[in-house]
Amino acid sequence: MNSKFIEYFKENFFKSENDLKIFLSSLDKHLKKTIRINTNKISPDILLERLKKYNYDLSPTFSKNVYYIERWENFDELEKRLGFTLEHLMWFFYIQELWASSSVFYLSDWKIDETNYLILDMASSPGWKTTQLEEFYPNSFIVANEFSRDRTAQLIANIERMWSENVWLTCYNWQFIWRLTETFDKILLDAPCSWEWIWFKAIESLKYWNLKNVKKIADLQEKLFESWLNALKVGWEMLYSTCTMNKIENEWVIENVLRKYPDSFEIITQKRFWPHIDNTWWFFVTRIKKLKSVDYKFSKKIEL
Ligand SMILES: C[S@@+](CC[C@H](N)C(=O)[O-])C[C@H]1O[C@@H](n2cnc3c(N)ncnc32)[C@H](O)[C@@H]1O
């Protein structure tokens, strides 16, 4: 275990040894898998009925169209693989962690909104939140921006598989988005982060965790946040999310931008998901409302 990581967590989040112990022991536990139903292709009732034949046990989560899924009998490994079911191959559902579906929930309050908005999904590949945005804002135009050209093939494939309409793909860096002053009605920034969540997949990856790397990524997040704030219309809302727990990439990014542009926005909701409390991987969401224009200085160089 990376001692610096443990120290940081203890100092920032856990007052007692016991609290830390509960948190650490939760990391070895099995977290329930969740699936999100693709309502563009099938209704939840029909899919739930179809999945019964594989002996999957489904129960609702707090998220609309997202279900916990477990096998109630022991089958061999191949049969256990959800990915091999016809329903998955048809993209009637996909496997998405509970936390990952929460960004769109917090932006929309789970209400389907038929108004026509212009929405920017600032860091969109592989597109799980883009396709979910399309579900919650069926009449909106969604700009799915992905800076990394290498990651756009996956984004396009997922948008097509999910039958998401009204999505326009762009490939810009934050310097370009910055120039789109007060253009969008809503923005989602699911920011690149230091990937602390990877601990749940490969604990050894945490040996690379250190504060220097965290601060470097926080600098980028701050730039993205600022460009995003500038691109949002006054009076409208945006959502910032990361799959890291540390405060440097979360609260501090928000506080630093607010210090730079005092009174420019207010926080509407903020939530941190914990594995030992919320039974999901860690995740952080903040919804804000823009209160006034930001006096932003453009850099001369644009990286496209
Ligand atoms: C957490 S992932 C987004 C996941 C996506 N929202 C989803 O739900 O499927 C963060 C994304 O930020 C992109 N990214 C990395 N550096 C960036 C930058 N400088 N500007 C904009 N996006 C960047 C990454 O390529 C990655 O696709």
Top keywords for this entry?
single chain, 304 residues, alpha/beta, Alpha-Beta Plaits, Rossmann fold, 2 domains, four-stranded antiparallel sheet, 11 strands, binds S-adenosylmethionine
Number of DSSP helical runs: 12
Strand content: 15-25%
Percentage of residues in helical conformation: 25-40%
Distinct ligands:
S-adenosylmethionine
Q: What's the overall average pLDDT, rounded? A: 87
The major β-sheet equals: 7 strands, mixed
Protein name: rRNA (Cytosine-C(5)-)-methyltransferase RsmF
GO biological process, one term: RNA methylation
Family: Belongs to the class I-like SAM-binding methyltransferase superfamily. RsmB/NOP family.
Pfam family, one: Methyltr_RsmB-F
Structural account:
This protein is of the alpha/beta class. It folds into 2 domains: 33-95, Sun protein, domain 3 (Alpha-Beta Plaits); 101-290, Rossmann fold, CATH 3.40.50. 34% of the residues lie in helices and 22% in strands. It has 12 helices and 11 strands. It has helices at residues 3-13, 17-26, 44-51, 77-80, 86-89, 102-108, 128-136, 152-161, 174-177, 211-231, 251-260, 275-278, and strands at 33-37, 56-60, 66-71, 93-95, 118-121, 141-145, 167-170, 184-190, 232-242, 265-273, 283-290. The strands form 2 sheets. It has a 7-stranded mixed sheet with strand order 7-6-5-8-9-11-10. Strands 2-3-1-4 form a 4-stranded antiparallel sheet, covered by helices on one side. Strand 6 (141-145), helix 8 (152-161) and strand 7 form a beta-alpha-beta unit. Helix 10 packs across helix 11 (251-260). The radius of gyration is 20 Å and the shape is globular. It starts with a helix and ends in a 14-residue tail after the last strand. The model has no long low-confidence stretch (mean pLDDT 87). S-adenosylmethionine binds at residues 123-129, 146-148, 151, 173-174, 190, 192, 220, 224.
